[in-house]
User: What shape does this take?
Amino acid sequence: MNTPPTSATEQQIAELVRRFYERALANDSLRPIFDATVTDWDTHHRVVQDFWSRTLLDTNRYRGHPYPVHAQLPLQPEHFDIWLGLFRETAREVLPADAAAQAIARAEHMAESFKAGMFSFPPYPGPKLWKPAL
Ligand code: HEM
Assistant: This one.
């Protein structure tokens, strides 16, 4: 999704990522999920920085697909609330106001989409319960 570039700098975005992960890894609910998944932190920071660079500066550095990545993680809805709380705090601290507002809006929108995709429906009951129409 491309939006007009904000006044953030790459340096501020790097700082956003650094401080956000400092907080996320100090959080007892989020840390185990990162510990179990991320083996190469430099690469992870770079990928996430590229993502925010695309969102806030309209660069084309991130070309991944965040939804399938998160759909495979053992997440509950409350993980997103905690994540967003830490992200809002960090974004307001590190980014200029226009960029903070855009980053927070994007994260909130993604959290809503992720939650809608991941938690809206009960698990598929399986083919045994399906009856073909006659
Ligand atoms: C809506 C809020 C979120 C945003 C915007 C976001 C953003 C991202 C992005 C851009 C990536 C890189 C995906 C890629 O490899 O292409 C990522 C990966 C990851 N995120 Fe999130 N994330 C969010 C919520 C969460 C939450 C709640 C958790 C729970 C701890 C989480 C844990 C992870 C982990 C563990 C990875 C690495 C997965 C892997 O390397 O296999 N994220 N996230």
User: Anything to note?
Assistant: Helices lie at 10-25, 31-37, 41-57, 66-71, 77-94, 97-119. The chain has one domain: 10-114.
